[in-house]
Specification:
heterodimer, A: 304 residues, alpha/beta, Rossmann fold, seven-stranded parallel beta sheet, B: 249 residues, nine-stranded mixed beta sheet, two-stranded antiparallel ribbon, globular, binds flavin-adenine dinucleotide, binds adenosine monophosphate
C-alpha cells in the first residue's frame, strides 16, 4: 500500500492525522518542523518521526515549509501526504500539492480505502451536497480537524533531518494569541443558536439564560460573530465554523442557508423559530414555530 | 503598481435545488464567488490609496464575459479572461497553470488577491498553487492589508491568533470573507462596466502543456438524506411537551 507522510504544526491535529494515516498504511512517517516537543509526541504515538531542522525555517513561510517537506519526500517512499485542514494546513496544502505535482482535496471529513483507492468525503456546492472523490496521481489530502480521534501511545522512532531553504521574504512581526472563549460547541448536548433575527446585542443575555437553563451552550450563525461581533468565532455553526451533533438544537432567527445547515444536520432534534413561515430552515427542522424569537425565549425561560 | 484579483464564476448557490438528492444546476444563473468580492473590494480600497490598476482575472466558460461585468461595475478597471468550456469543472492542478500564465502577461503586478475559498468548492488551494508556480511568497487568510513602499504588512487571522507579517511584493494573498463589506455598484457604474477594457484569450492561446496532470475523480455527489418531522407547533407549551416526549429536555 501507498507510503504515507503526515504533517501538522498543531500537535493535537498531527496525532489525529496518524490515526487517519493508519487506515492507509501501518507505517506512518510524521514530520515536525524545528519542534522537539511535537517530534517526541509523534514518535510516542508510534510514528517514524522526522524532525526537520533549519534555524531560519518558520511555519509562517509557506513556500519554505513546502520546499522543506519536499526534500523529505524525495528521500522517503511516499505518495500520499496528509495535512490538517486548519488554516495553516490549508494554506500549505495547495503549495505543497503544486510542488509534488499532486492532486489536492481539502476539508476532508472522512476517508475510506476501497480496493487500493482512497475515497474522500467532502462538502461540495457550499455544503448542499457531499461529494465522494479520489485523486489519481500523487495525493495530498487535508483532513478536517476533529474528524478522527488522536492516535494512542505506541513505540515509534525519532530522527532529525537538516534541510536547505531559501528565505521567501515573509517576516513575522508579531503573533497575538486569541484570548478568552474556550467553548467547545461540538461537545455540547444542547445548543441554542441565534442568527441575524436577534434584534440587538442586549438580547443575548436572555438567550444565554435559556441555554444555561437547558444545560447547553450558545452558538450562532456566521454573521452574528463575524459581522456583528456579538459572539466569538468559536461559536459559529457551519461550513466555515463547527460541525455539531447535539441531541437538541434550538435555532432562533436563522434563515437556513446551506453553509449554515451543513453544520447542524447531524443533530438529533432540530427546532426552528422564525417569523418567516417559508424560511428554508423549516425544511430542516423537526419542530417549527413561526414566532418572534424574543417572545419565545422569554416564555421558554419562564415555563421550563 | 497593479493589483490582480482572481475571481471565479460559480452557480448562484441560493438557486440550486435538490431533486432526489441530486443537485439541479440547469437554469441556475452564474455569479461571482462571495469571498472573491471581498478580495476585489480589498484591491479597490488599496488602489484608491496607492493608485495603479485593478485587473480582475477569471478563467471559465464563455459566460464569464458577461458575469465579470459585476466586478467591473464594483471597481475593477480591466478584465483578463481565459475562456474554455473545459475550465468550468476543472480541478486546481489544471487551473493554477492557466492563472499563473495569465498573470505573467500582466505588467507591474504587486499584489495578487484570491478569496480564501471559492463559493462552491471552497477548497482554498488555488492561490497557494499559483504562488508556487510564480515563485512568489504568499500570505493566506488576510484580515488586513497595508502597503508600505515595496512591502505589504498583512494580518493573517488563524484559529488561535493573529499573525502580523511583513512581506516583499509581489505577493499572493488570500483574504477572509470578513475583511471588508463589498460596495454595491450604482446604476451608472453598471452601465459603464460594459465599456471597460477586456482582454480575452482562448485557452490554447496560452500554449500550455496541460498533459499528465493529476485528476480528481468524483464518485458521487449527493445531498445528505434528510427526513425531518417538520411538525408545526403553535405555542411554547406545545413545544416543551414535544421536546419532553423526544427525551431531549
Ligand atoms: C464560503 C462561505 C462560507 C460560509 N460559512 C458559513 C458558516 O459556517 N456558518 C454560517 O452560519 N454561515 C456561513 N456563511 C453565510 C451564509 O451563507 C448565510 O449568509 C448565513 O448563514 C446567514 O445567517 P442568518 O441565518 O443568521 O441570517 P439571515 O439570512 O439574515 O436570516 C435571519 C433570519 O431571521 C429571521 N428573523 C428576523 N427577525 C426575527 C424575529 N424577530 N424572530 C424570529 N426570526 C426572525 C428572518 O426571517 C431570517 O430567516 C458562509 C457563506 C459563504 C459564502
Ligand atoms: N476559475 C477561476 N478563475 C479565477 N480565479 C479563480 C478560479 N477558481 C478559483 N479562483 C480563485 O481561487 C480562490 C480559491 O479557490 P478554490 O481553491 O477553488 O477554493 C477563489 O476564491 C478565487 O479567488
Amino acid at each position: 500500500m501507498a507510503g504515507v507522510i503526515v504533517y501538522s504544526a498543531n500537535p493535537e491535529l498531527a496525532l489525529e492525522l496518524i490515526t487517519v494515516a493508519r487506515l492507509i498504511n501501518d507505517k506512518v512517517v510524521a514530520l515536525s518542523i524545528n519542534d522537539d516537543q511535537l517530534a517526541q509526541a509523534l514518535s510516542q504515538a508510534g510514528a517514524q518521526a522526522i524532525k526537520i531542522t533549519h534555524p531560519d525555517l518558520v511555519v509562517a513561510d509557506t513556500a519554505a515549509v513546502a520546499a522543506a517537506i519536499k526534500q523529505v519526500l524525495d528521500g522517503v517512499q511516499a505518495d500520499v501526504v496528509l495535512l490538517s485542514s486548519d488554516r495553516r494546513g490549508k494554506e500549505l496544502a495547495g503549495r505543497l500539492a503544486q510542488v509534488m505535482g499532486a492532486g489536492c482535496l481539502t476539508d476532508v471529513a472522512a476517508l475510506e480505502v476501497k480496493e487500493g483507492q482512497i475515497e474522500c468525503q467532502r462538502n461540495a456546492l457550499g455544503g448542499a451536497t457531499i461529494a465522494v472523490q479520489c485523486i489519481e496521481g500523487p495525493q495530498l489530502i487535508a483532513i478536517r480537524p476533529r474528524s478522527y480521534p488522536a492516535a494512542g501511545t505506541a513505540a515509534g522512532s525519532l530522527e532529525e533531518m537538516a534541510v536547505e531553504i531559501k528565505a521567501s521574504g515573509v517576516k513575522v512581526l508579531e503573533f497575538k494569541a486569541k484570548v478568552g472563549d474556550k467553548v467547545d460547541i461540538e461537545a455540547a448536548e444542547t445548543l441554542v443558536a441565534v442568527g441575524q433575527g436577534l434584534s440587538d446585542e442586549g438580547q443575548l443575555a436572555g438567550v444565554q439564560d435559556l441555554a444555561a437553563k437547558l444545560g447547553g451552550e450558545v452558538a450562532c450563525s456566521k454573521p452574528v460573530a463575524t459581522d456583528k461581533k456579538w459572539l466569538s468565532e468559536e461559536r459559529i455553526i457551519g461550513l466555515s465554523g463547527k460541525k455539531c451533533k447535539p441531541q437538541l438544537a434550538l435555532l432562533l432567527g436563522i434563515s437556513g442557508q446551506v453553509q449554515f445547515t451543513v453544520g447542524i444536520r447531524d443533530a438529533k432534534v432540530i427546532v426552528a423559530v422564525n417569523t418567516d413561515e417559508n424560511a428554508a430552515i423549516n425544511y430542516m427542522a423537526d419542530y417549527i414555530m413561526q414566532a418572534d424569537l424574543h417572545q419565545v425565549v422569554q416564555e421558554l425561560k419562564q415555563k421550563l | 503598481m497593479n493589483i490582480v484579483v482572481a475571481m471565479k464564476q460559480i452557480p448562484d448557490l441560493q438557486q440550486i435545488r435538490i431533486r432526489q438528492r441530486q443537485p439541479v444546476l440547469d437554469g441556475v444563473p452564474a455569479a461571482l464567488g462571495i469571498i472573491d468580492k471581498n478580495a476585489l473590494e480589498a484591491a479597490v480600497l488599496l488602489k484608491e490609496e496607492e493608485g495603479g490598476q485593478v485587473i480582475v482575472l477569471s478563467a471559465g466558460n464563455e459566460e464569464v464575459e458577461e458575469t465579470v461585468k459585476e466586478a467591473l461595475a464594483a471597481g475593477a478597471d480591466q478584465a483578463f479572461l481565459v475562456l474554455d468550456d473545459s475550465i468550468e469543472n476543472a480541478d486546481g492542478s489544471l487551473k493554477a497553470p492557466i492563472l499563473a500564465e495569465a498573470i505573467k502577461k500582466i505588467d507591474d503586478v504587486g499584489l495578487i488577491l484570491f478569496g480564501e475559498g471559492s463559493g462552491d468548492n471552497y477548497s482554498g488551494q488555488l492561490g497557494s498553487r499559483v504562488a508556487e508556480l510564480l515563485g512568489l511568497p504568499q500570505v493566506g487568510y488576510a484580515s488586513r492589508i497595508q502597503i508600505q513602499d515595496s512591502q505589504a504588512i498583512i494580518t493573517r487571522s488563524l484559529e488561535d491568533g493573529d499573525e502580523l507579517v511583513k512581506v516583499t511584493m509581489p505577493v499572493v494573498v488570500s483574504v477572509l470573507g470578513d475583511i471588508n463589506e463589498p460596495r454595491i455598484p450604482s446604476v451608472t457604474q453598471i452601465l459603464k462596466a460594459g465599456r471597460k477594457p477586456k482582454e480575452v484569450l482562448e485557452l490554447d492561446e496560452l500554449e500550455l502543456d496541460l498533459s499528465g496532470l493529476p485528476q480528481i475523480k468524483t464518485l458521487s455527489n449527493l445531498a445528505p438524506e434528510t427526513n425531518r418531522k417538520q411538525v408545526k407547533v403553535g405555542s411554547v407549551e406545545e413545544l416543551i411537551q414535544a421536546l419532553k416526549t423526544e427525551g431531549v429536555i
